[in-house]
Amino acid sequence: MSVIPNVPSQLRQRLRPQPSGHLVVCGDNPLALRLTTELARLYAEPVTVLLPSRQRNHGPGIEALARDPALSVRIVEAATVDDDALRRAGVERAVALALTSGDDQANIHTALRARRLNPRLRLVVRVFNRSLGKRVRELLDKAALSAGYASEATTTVLSASATAAPAMVTAALVGHGHTLEVDGRVLRTAEYPQQHVPGGRLLSTLALRPAEATAQAGGAGSATGLDEPLLLPSQRQIAEAPPNTVRVGLERLPDRFAPRGTPLSQRLPGLPFGILFSRRLQAAFAAVAGMVLLYALLTWLSTDYAPLSSLYVALLDVLGLAEPALGMGWERQVLQVLTALSGMALIPLLLAVVLENMSSFRAASSMRRPPRNLTGHVVVVGLGNVGTRVLDRLCELRVPVVCVERDPQARGIERAREARVPVVIGDATSPEVLAEARVGRSRALMTMTSDETTNLEAALAAREEREDLRVVMRLFDDGFATAVYRAMRDSYPRAVTRSRSVSYLAAPTFAGAMMGRQVIGAIPIGRRVLLVAVVDVADRPEMAGLTISQADRPGMWRILALDLTGVAERRRDLGLPPDTGEQFMPSGLLWGPPREYVLGEADRLVVVATRQGLGGLLQRTSDEWTPTFPPPGDS
Questions:
Q1: Biggest alpha carbon distance in the chain?
Q2: For residue 153, what pLDDT is reported?
C-alpha cells in the first residue's frame, strides 16, 4: 500500500477513499457493540462505528472487532456528533445509520443532521418516548418525501427497553409463555413433553431441550444428550429425541386475543395518616404546647388573671397577637417580650415540619404501599428505562406488581403512580426493603437496574429470604451471567435463575431495520434467541421455485406464514395490529401454509430464524451466501 509522504496521519486518513454502501452505527454503549457484532459477523456487512473514544465505555470491544481481519469494521472517533463527524463516517454515501444513545434529544438532533446530509439514508433511531418517536418518524419521512426519496429512505424508531421487555417478562412468568403479535394474531410459546404430540394451534417446534434444564445458558447436561437447547430441529431430530426431552413449540391463540388491556388497577388502601402526623410533628406540637403552658403559669403567678385567662393571654403572646403590656408591672412586660421571642423561634419550625409532612403525605397518598396480604405478585427492582417497560408489560398482562426504586425521581415513578402500582422507595439490597415489598410471598423477582452488581446483590438478598424464589436478572456480560447462573444453581438447586441482556435482545431488531427488513420480534430460548422476521422472496431469488418444505432449513430458519395480500395492499409493520378502526378485518397471513406450496418472487414470508439464519437471509449480496437446502420432508 502506498503511503503519501509528508502528510500527517489525521489528514492521510481523510485522503483515503471513503467507504460507500456501508452501515453506520453511532454510539459506544452495549447496544452499539452488540449491533456492530450482529451486522459484521452475521450479515457480513461493512460497518463504520462513530464513537467518542476507543478507550472508554465499550470502545475497546468495538476496537477488537475493528482489528479482526475477517470483519469489515471501521472506527471514526469524534467528541461530538456534528456534520463533520457524520461526513467522516461516510453518512453521505451510507445505506443506513443507527443512533443507539440513550439520550432521545441527542439522537433526534443527529437524525435531523443525517437526513439533511443524505435524504436517501435509512435511519434507525433509538427513542424511549413513544409519542415523541412517532412524531419524529413522521417528520423525518416527510423530509425524505420532500427531497424525492420517499421510496428509498425510511425511518424506524425503536426502543431497546421496549423491545427487550417482553422477553424479560416471559422469563419471570413461567407458564404464560412468550407472546408475540403478528398482524393481529398472537403467537405464544409453550412447552410439551416429548411423549405428548400437540395439535390444533401448534405452528412449529422451535427447540428441543433437556427436561431438567432451566432454559438458561450454562445449564448442565442431561440424559437426553442435549447440553443446550437444539433450535429449529428437523422432523427427524424431533422423532429421534429421547422421551425425557422437552419440546418448545409455537402456538396460535384465538383471533383478536391479545395481552393488551387497561393498566392494572388495584384497590387504593387507607390514607397514610401516620406520615401526616409523624413523630417529628408530634414533638413540635408538644414543644409549642409546653411553652404555652409554661408562660401561662408564669402569667398567672405574676398577674391577677384567672387560669384560663392566663392561658389565653400566653397564647396570644406566643403568636404575637397581644396588645403591648403598657401600664402594667415590669414583670408582665418582661414576660411578654420573652414569650414573643420564644414564639418567633418555635412557630417557623413548627410550620416547616407541617409543610414537610404535608408534602410526604401527598407523595405517599399518590404512591401506593404494598398491601399486607399481597401474594403471587412480581417484584420489579429499578424503574429506569428497562424497568418502566417491564412494568408496562406486566400491567398489560394484568399481573400484580410491586416496584422497588432507590431514586424518588426515577423515570418510572410517575408511570407506577398512574397505574396505581405499589412502590417501595429504598435500597433493594436491604432485607428490610425487600420484606416491605413482600418478596417472600412473590412469584418472581426481576432486577432491572443498570448496575449488574446491584442486580446480583438484590437477587442474593431475596434468596436469603426465600430460597426457591424465581429470579430474573439483567446482566450484560455473557461470561459473568453464566458464572452467576452456575453458582446460584449449585447453591439453590430448587430455584429458577435466569438472566437477560437488553442489548442482546434488542440488537437483532435494530440490525434488521438497518438492513431494510422487518424483524417483528425475538423469542428467547434460554440466553439464545430466535427471531421472527418478514422476508420477501424477491430479495432471495434462490428460494423462488422451491416448495416451502424445500426452502426450510433446519437449525437456521423455518417458514411460519405466507402473506396472501397483494403487493400494493401489504402493511409496512406486521408487528402492529391492523388499523381497521371499529371493524375487525381478518389477517392477510396464511399460517402454516401447505408444505408443497411453490414460492414465487412476489411472495412475502414470515419466518422464524436463528441469528445466523436470519443473517444469511438478509444479506444484501446473494453471492456471499450459498443456501444448502435439506431434502424434501426433512424439515
A1: 117
A2: 58
Enter the C-alpha cell of residue 326: 403598657
Give residue 9's pLDDT. Answer: 40
Look up residue 473 and give its three cell numbers. Answer: 436478572
CA R_g for the chain = 32
Whether residue 458 contacts residue 451, with contact meaning beta carbons closer than 8 Å, is answered with no
Residue pair 592/203 in contact (Cβ under 8 Å)? The answer is: yes
Distance separating alpha carbons of residues 81 and 338, to the nearest angstrom: 66
pLDDT < 70 stretches in the chain: 1-20, 146-153, 174-179, 181, 184-186, 197-200, 211-227, 253-278, 321-323, 325-327, 329, 357, 359-368, 517-518, 527, 568-569, 571-587, 618-635
Q: pTM for the full model?
A: 0.64
What is the rounded distance in angstroms from the CA atom of residue 275 to the CA atom of residue 364? 8
Residue type, 71: L
For 108, the 3-state DSSP assignment is helix
Angle between helices 279-302 and 307-319 (to 10 degrees): 120
Sheet with 557-563, strands from edge to edge, namely: 518-525, 528-536, 604-610, 557-563, 589-591
**Separation CA 590–CA 604 (nearest Å):** 11
- 3-state helix/strand/coil string of 192-249: EECCCCCCCCEEEEEEEEECCCCCCCCCCCCCCCCCCCEECCCHHHHHHCCCCEEEEE
Which secondary-structure segment (H or E) carries 210? strand 202-210
Q: Which CATH code is given to the segment(s) 527-635?
A: 3.30.70.1450
- Per-domain residue ranges of the chain: 13-158, 273-366, 527-635
Please report the sign of the dihedral spanned by the C-alpha atoms of residue 63, residue 67, residue 68, residue 73. positive
**Domain 13-158, architecture per CATH:** 3-Layer(aba) Sandwich (3.40)
CATH 1.10.10 assigned to domain 273-366? The reply is: no
- What is the H or E stretch that residue 207 is in? strand 202-210
d(CA 580, CA 13): 53
Tell me the one-letter amino acid at 155: T
**Collapsing DSSP states into helix, strand and coil, what is residue 209?**
strand
DSSP state string for 394-420: HHHTT--EEEEES-TT-HHHHHHHHHT
Task: Name the pairing type of β-strands 518-525 and 528-536.
Answer: antiparallel
Alpha helices per DSSP H over 420-542: 431-436, 452-465, 478-491, 502-514
User: At 55, is the secondary structure helix, strand, or coil?
Assistant: coil
The pLDDT value recorded for residue 1 is: 40
Q: In 27-80, which ranges are E strands?
A: 47-51, 73-77
- Determine the 3-state secondary structure of 183 from DSSP: coil
Quick check: 73 and 65 in contact, CB under 8 A? yes
Q: Give the start-end residues of each E strand in 148-184.
A: 155-158, 179-182
Specify the pLDDT at position 100. 92
